[in-house]
């Protein structure tokens, strides 16, 4: 192999590190990313992936070592970033958001070029997307916002993208849209572009990565071609043994019915009921109606009647000015109140207990919630719901950005809580998660298209019902 012919890296880190006060988030990282490769970046929540990405994009400067870009700075080098926490301005249209990142769109006539660029990008990445360039972002679903932001990252202009960083890019996409994105990632890579692909869905990493880098405790602990890993070997390199329950262990008996809606959705005590189907077909709205119906008459006396785990944590879950402890305890304050005042000692004890039980990576629960990685913020929302005595837990695509080891532990928690009689209604864009449920309703066009139970719940049947209005194979 002629090493002299190897393309120059788009970005190169040498001994790069980053500290936040006494906390060392990244230490001694040596990494280069070249044209034509897709780097799969994996590691558990808090491993240092987000800090590394912030150095690559220039959002943070290194505390030690160096970060060098091909054209001197990230923007000129064509570095684009789709963060796990979506960052579109909600009061602007999709096209108007594009000008925030593409500085060459200036002057009185910028609107038509902006519309053309974002439409072309959407058409390339997500054929038949149905998105309007003039739609206001606040009116879009979470999946549509994710599609729009991904398309912006691949849009030509200002300068053209050379390195695109995708952080949990399919977290709100259904299988069909995720497949379209993965296909575009391969085309972009094969055309000479570079990708950093961060995902806790290891199958997606293996589908697109040419090379996989494993991070743990702020350091790179493994870096080799993707073909050099197996799934089990990759999980082992990440430093966490996945513990999962028996997927076939579902409830056959049904307790008393505890939830009923006009749409025909029913759940029984101790059941885990899935809401499946393509994203945006009414699952989240059904959960919202159930939540409002159960909480509208509640006045804060006694345990909450229903707990909710938000998928869109920035909009519906996290209170950014509050601490980890106060975010976690919010839903169960009635259980922590003494003489009308919140017992802060009990609140702290509750937060520390759940920090250990669910693996929230922090040494101090009184730190701001935004000091946590996105996945660890999601763990706080899970703990908030499970720490209550609510008999019903509604989950709106709750595993967004949660690592594979924690997912397995949460699955075990859900099953254990269901065995105690708690009911879970679980919307997920991942068909694999729906196979863990006792029963699943497949939604299409805002209505239930099929009901599957037990061994009937397979990825094939879920997809068939999503597209065929319930005509699942026998």
From TrEMBL:
Pfam families: ABC_tran. SUPFAM superfamilies: P-loop containing nucleoside triphosphate hydrolases. Residues 11-242, 242-470 form the ABC transporter domain. Keywords: ATP-binding, Nucleotide-binding, Repeat, Sugar transport, Transport. Coiled coil: none annotated. One of its GO terms (molecular function) is ATP hydrolysis activity. It comes from the Bacteria. The keyword RNA-binding does not apply. InterPro entries: AAA+_ATPase, ABC_carbohydrate_import_ATPase, ABC_transporter-like_ATP-bd, ABC_transporter-like_CS, P-loop_NTPase. CDD domains: ABC_Carb_Monos_I. This is Sugar ABC transporter ATP-binding protein. It comes from Rubellimicrobium roseum.
